[in-house]
Specification:
Layout (H helix, E strand, L loop, with lengths): L1 E8 L7 H10 L7 E7 L2 E7 L12 E2 L5 E9 L2 H8 L10 H12 L9 E9 L4 E6 L8 E4 L3 E5 L2 H4 L11 H10 L12 E3 L4 E6 L4 E6 L4 E2 L9 H16 L6 E4 L4 H13 L5 E7 L7 H11 L2 E7 L1 H15 L8 H12 L4 E3 L4 H5 L4 H9 L4 H12 L5 H6 L3 H7 L6 H7 L15 E2 L6 H11 L1 H15 L4 E3 L5 H7 L8 E3 L6 E3 L1 H7 L5 H4 L10 H6 L3 H8 L12 H12 L4 H20 L2
Parallel strand pairs: 13-18, 14-15, 14-17, 15-16, 17-19
Antiparallel strand pairs: 1-3, 1-9, 2-3, 4-5, 5-6, 6-7, 7-11, 8-9, 8-10, 11-12, 20-21
Helix pairs in contact: 2-3, 6-7, 6-19, 6-20, 7-20, 9-10, 9-25, 10-18, 12-15, 12-17, 24-25
């Protein structure tokens, strides 16, 4: 995996090579194996390389034979061998890298080449003959790409912390980004914490006219939900075949690799499929905690025993978390409140000491309905008394301000959103300074064919386009790249995604009509049953977060108290001190959910001190 950056001056100003170098240096962790800078007229590209395929010959920026095309590429196109065979009758290749395949595919098909790529990528491709720079992000948003467009120049980078190295780029905090961060624990795409700096949306590219100073954003892929009818095909057979084929091409690498193994269904199935396609034992890596009830290490060890993997474990303590916090906020470049970034960093660090590339099971919860909010939605959806019961709770809520009653009065969406929120809208009104307007939630457009979507499928699609991109994939990319480790996510291959969003609801999640018990990931568990006993696959879902309540009420409490209750803290430009103090009291009085809110406020504080003012 790699880091890319670049600058375009639209009025023929000399390019600042020292700034390109500074941006490149800031992303050195993304590519410790090499660096390169390209300058041509008013266009400059910079690249840091983590060499995975053709380590000797795949240096970048990669130039065409006539030097009229320059490619700065971060990612992997896993079907590059198949595409290369199509191109070989008309092209002469000088490397074995997928980078060259991307460039030559553009030479033959133009931007239609994107339709042929299976993989994760963010790249900049400069076509000097056309006077156009293309900035591209993969369909799902696995790889990041930030950009800023001013009237006389454009800049881009893989990480926000590299982009803000530019002294001419304004660093004005967007108040609505603060609102959305406190709502979700991340700043939703396409916004960033800074006004005028954006994340390129998944499945889009920018076309930059470097002569006229104009940019145009184009979509080339979007999730489309198309539910097939039961009996239309053998879904299990089709899923097994697609997963086998996907894992096979995702294992293409010229360096040692392994697999994250949490002990859950998703990572266990990916590890099992790896073992099927490899000779010798697979190296697997797990993380755990000292606190009882928060560690999945026994389940990961059981999966390793069944598969015969070469297994590695690491324990994360509260002290390790404390040591990481300042470094972590710098890598994210903007406030980010998912506490599971801590174990993700440490499992990546442990893994990078053994291999340079790893497979992960991320995406299974969104694709196959694994999150805890989905069973709640399903039970309500099929409950004939749901509306009457909700009406009763709504009436009671006017008289009794109970949290349980308020929850009973919620509709499907409100209950689902409550599982995704750091602060609810009601809490935001109490928390934020009065001059800050609370904007509506960003609207998520979902394309579908056929009948209106049931609420579970709708929420899956929304989570796929929001929470997955801005939380899960952001966390995995930054924490793995901080350790120069490439993470591949085969369940998020776009062909697997399209298949998952064609499955009838009962093949993703179903309820026993007599016991009302709900089974999630139905078809995925059936696929995994080829390798694991049903008892292993049917245990309750276990999250990957830190023991946040225990740590906030224990070893991290002095630091939290010293930081968040200091009336000179700069977070009070945005939030009210009395509201923070009230959240602190909630934690001490036994409200476990207050720990996540305090963690979010701490991440905002650290971002202000270590990044914004750093």
């Amino acid at each position: 995996m790699c880091g890319i950056a670049g600058i375009v001056h639209f009025h023929s100003r000399p390019l600042e090579e020292d700034l390109l170098s500074a941006m490149n240096h800031r992303q050195a962790h993304r590519g410790p194996d090499g660096e390169g800078i390209y300058r041509e007229g008013n266009v400059g590209l910079a690249h840091r390389r983590l060499a995975i395929i053709d380590p000797q010959m795949g240096a970048q920026p990669f130039l065409s034979d006539d030097r009229r095309l320059a490619l700065c590429y971060n990612g992997e196109v896993y079907n590059y061998r198949e595409i290369r065979k199509e191109l070989e009758p008309d092209a002469s290749f000088r490397t074995q890298s997928d980078t060259e395949v991307v460039l030559r595919a553009y030479q033959k098909w133009g931007m239609e080449c994107l339709q042929r790529f299976r993989g994760m990528f963010a790249f900049a491709l400069y076509d000097a003959r056309k006077g156009v720079l293309y900035l591209v992000r993969d369909r799902v948003g696995i790889k990041p790409l930030y950009y800023a467009f001013l009237k006389d120049r454009l800049a881009f980078a893989s990480e926000l912390s590299a982009l803000i190295q530019l002294p001419w780029l304004p660093r004005e905090v967007d108040p609505q980004a603060i609102v959305q961060f406190l709502r979700y624990g991340y700043v939703p795409t396409p916004a960033t914490i800074y006004q005028g700096i954006y994340k390129l949306e998944p499945g889009h590219y920018l076309e930059v006219d470097i002569r006229g100073g104009r940019i145009r954003k184009e979509p080339y892929w979007d999730l489309r939900v198309h539910i097939r009818m039961p009996g239309e095909l053998n879904f299990l057979e089709a899923l097994n075949a697609k997963l086998d084929e996907t894992i096979r091409i995702y294992l293409r690498s010229d360096v040692p690799f392994g697999c994250f193994l949490s002990g859950g269904v998703d990572s266990s199935l990916v590890a099992a499929l790896m073992a099927r396609h490899l000779e010798g034992s697979v190296q697997t890596f797990s993380i755990g905690f000292q606190e009882p009830g928060h560690s999945e290490l026994p389940y990961a060890a059981e999966a390793s025993r069944i598969l015969g993997t070469d297994h590695h474990e690491r324990i994360v303590s509260s002290q390790l978390a404390f040591d990481l916090l300042k470094k972590m906020v710098v890598h994210f470049g903007e406030p980010f409140a998912d506490s599971s970034a801590v174990p993700t960093y440490y499992v990546s660090r442990e893994t990078s000491g053994h291999v340079k590339m790893i497979l992960s099971g991320d995406g299974g919860d969104e694709l196959f309905a694994g999150y805890d909010s989905y069973p709640i939605t399903l039970r309500d959806f099929f409950d004939p008394h749901y509306q009457a019961r909700r009406g009763l709770f709504q009436a009671l809520a006017r008289l009794i301000p109970s949290g349980r009653i308020k929850r009973g009065a919620m509709d499907f969406r409100q209950k689902h959103q409550s599982q995704r929120e750091l602060f609810s809208d009601e809490q935001l009104h109490q928390l934020l300074q009065p001059e800050i307007t609370i904007a509506p939630r960003p609207k998520v457009e979902i394309q579908s064919s056929g009948d209106p979507l049931d609420p579970v499928t709708l929420f899956q699609a929304e989570d796929f386009k929001t929470y997955l991109v801005d939380d899960v994939l952001t966390k995995v990319d930054r924490m793995s790249m901080a350790n120069s480790l490439e993470v591949r996510v085969p369940l998020l291959d776009h062909q697997v995604v399209e298949m998952a969003f064609s499955l009838p609801l009962p093949l993703r999640i179903r309820q026993d009509p007599f016991t009302r018990a709900v089974e999630t990931k139905v078809l995925l568990k059936s696929s995994a049953a080829r390798f694991f006993p049903r008892a292993y696959l049917s245990r309750p879902k276990h999250g990957f977060g830190i023991p946040i309540i225990e740590w906030c009420k224990g070893p991290l409490m002095p630091f939290l108290k010293e930081t968040l209750l200091d009336r000179q803290n700069l977070i009070f430009d945005w939030v009210r001190p009395q509201a923070v103090k009230r959240t602190w009291s909630d934690l001490l009085q036994g409200d476990g959910s207050a720990a996540s809110r305090l963690w979010g406020l701490l991440m905002l504080d650290l971002w202000i001190r270590e990044v914004h003012q750093g």
